[in-house]
Structures are given as C-alpha cells and as structure tokens.
Amino acid sequence: MTETLTPVAAATLCGDGRCDVALHDGFTLCATHTSQLARDLAAVREVWANLQVTIRRQDATSSAIGGGSTGSRPCINLDALDKGETLASLLNGWAGSLALDYRQRPAAGAAKFLSDHLRLIVKEDWAGDLAQELAESLAECRRTTDRALEILSLGVCGFGDCPGAVTAVVGGHTGRCRECGAVWNVAERQQWAISQAWHAEGSLRLIVSALRASQQITTSYETVKKWAQRGKLYGTCDVATREHRYTAAGILESVRTATTNRARLNA
Question: How many structural domains does the chain have?
C-alpha cells in the first residue's frame, strides 16, 4: 500500500532584508523584526512630538518670513518639516495598503492604526518593506531633532540594570534610553536626581532652575534672589570664584517658610 504524503509548504525568508530566518504559516516577518516594528510604531508619537517642537523652533540665525532682509530664512525648520511629512506619508501609505477605506491622519494616528493591525501586517508580503522604511525614517527624524534641539541628559537608565544613557528634548515630558528604549518621565527623573544631591552646592540660578524644571517649586529665580539679598536665604561663599553657593534643601526650605508665612497672613 502506497502512503500519500501531504507536501509541507515551502518556507519563506523573513521579509526584512537584514534577516534570513525561514518562516512558515504565511508569516512574512520573523519574531525579532516583528517586535522591532512594534517598538518603532510605538516610538512614532514621541518622535513626532519632538519634530513639532523642532519645526517651530527656527535656527538661532533664522529670521521671520517677510522680514525683508536679504537672505532671511523662514521661521520654521524646513528640514524637520520635510522629515515629518515623509514619515506621515510613509505611515499613511502603508496603512492605506491594508484598508481600502482608510482615511489619512497625522503620523501618530497612522502609527497606532498600523500597530492595532500588526497581526495582519506580519502576513503581508510588504511587511519587511514597512519595517525597513519606518526604521530609516525614524532615524532621519531623530537626527534632525538631535541637531536642532537642546538635549537634556537624565543619567543612567538602570532599567533591568541597563547602563544606557537617558536623554530628552528640553521642554519635553518624556525621555528615552538610547540603549534599551525604556521611556522615563522627565520630571520624575529630575526629582530623583535632585534627591540624590539634596545638599550638593551650586549657583542660585542653577539650583532654582533645576527645582522649577522638576516641578519641586514654582517660585521664580528673581524672587529667590531677593530672599538671598535680604538675608532670608543662606549659602556659602566659594573663596576661589567669590560666588555664593546654595543647596536645593536650603532653597526648598525657604520656599516652604514663605508659603507658611503667607498663609498665616491671609488667615
């Protein structure tokens, strides 16, 4: 008796050109690159937000449109605008390939749509193209924002003992580890850093700026400066620089005292 064997479907290679993993069951993207695509889609919201800040902040030498001066530059960052439009076009284009009735939306919305349909995407023959194009576009956007924006260092990540550096765009609400991709709240990281250096000394402007940025206080630098001039805030004098030095603990105590006194007067 002759046994009839059912042929096994031939394996296909991962659609990402950087990979040669063999796949079955109709999948066109391996587990590793599926995870990377998911992370890249999730990163679009933050990258897009940073781009919008970059677009609005012209170069220091730029002039407003219509300024009338020779060689004036537009008051927006055209490079960031171009990179942002490319990212949005890429995401909307692939999303349209997945759904015929798809409606164009901002980049973050298009990325969420693709993320919500990732299980379908990893069986499309264009999944690898999407993964590669998105990774390249995000890299371009990040390079643009890194050049145009001030980057804030938030220390060593520490997530799962990760040694990577956490950075954020000045004015942004979240920072990201450049090694593992972990996302951190900027204010919380700054509060933690200050708590670790509660009695470290620094210039009045530096300490006040750090406390305001981490939302420890809302009092202005000028107000705290007046307290120091009136002897309500004490520091030490650096003999070498002849500059007065203050601590976060001392400034915060002065703020609390002022708040308590004001409450008593209003009672």
Answer: 3
